[in-house]
Amino acid sequence: MAYHKPTDIDGFITQMAKADMRIKALLAEDLVLYLNDSENSIECVDLGLLVDGLIPWMIGSHFKIAQRALEAFTELIVRLGQDFNAYTSTILPHVLDRLGDSRDTVREKAQLLLHKLMECRCVSPQSLLDKLTNLMQSKSKDIRSTLSEVMVLLFEEWPTKALEKNCILLRDALRKGIADADSDARKHSRCAFWNFRRHFPEIADSLYGSLDPATQRTLEKERDSIGTNAGLRSISAVDTAAAQRARARAQYSSMARMKISSGSASLQGQYAQQARAKKISAVSATPQQPPTPERRIRSRSGVSQSQPTSRSTSPSNKLRDNFGIPSIYKQTGTIPKENIRNTSLISKLPRNESNERNAIWITPSKCLWH
């Protein structure tokens, strides 16, 4: 059968029932191009007939035709806006089914369609969340992963007031997504968590506290890198309160470092004083040993050893006073050479009966021990 390109929406509706797959593929491609051009009119006898004709294409086995059907619905949503609400309940279950398609291109088109439904407010949060939470239990990891991505878009597109009635439901969905067996589902759920926290910080913090430490650290890393992920807005850019808290923490940290650096000298001085006090107390507690005669002689400062006659405790004075021995020192402090070898003086001295050895001083620098 020959194919004639339609020039209006009614012409597309007339040919959509044809069974030839080749014609369906050409018709679907031309329909997307027609709707994409804003100068083309979408007025027709019954727009519902167009929607009813696109649904079999969307759920069919031919992935190219299904992809074109999703694109056609997306273009209709852009053109109609909230007027598309009348058809949302009809197509939404089928769009969600396509989220688990084996083809990446089909899943992406289904996700884009959901995004447009939320962006144009063509679906209520309650109706969408009811279906999303049911699909979170799906055995298909592709469906769970894509639904986690939809959660990110949901928190970005809808205001807090539209979500507050379902905040507990959203929290439970996030909890399941963060613990999902699929790595992509966990990653998208972590991104969705920080968007969720922007709306409900107390509930998000309670959920965060219930997670294990390893999951908490992974969430923190995801927050640091969330600004570089495609399709996601940076949390720090939209969460003003979080940015202010971060600046305050940085200021307090800087002030603490300044205080530590400025007080280091005084701290060192205090430590030095304490060390000196401990040392003085330790020295005072140690019993002093009586100095030896040699130390007594050498420890007296200010007196020259070459002038023993200037001291009352010089060896010559002790010999003279105790034993009546004349001093071998001259007034000038010199010692006659002949007297140095004279050791007869030693024999005249009485021995001490104790075990201690007595020192007999001959010169200020030499002594005899016996």
From TrEMBL:
GO CC, any one term: spindle
Organism: Culex pipiens pipiens (Northern house mosquito)
SUPFAM superfamilies the record matches: ARM repeat
Positions of the TOG domain: 2-232
Region described as Disordered: spans on this chain: 278-336
Protein name as annotated: TOG domain-containing protein
Superkingdom of this protein's organism: Eukaryota
Pfam families: CLASP_N (PF12348)
A single BP term in Gene Ontology: mitotic cell cycle
Biased composition (Low complexity): 304-316
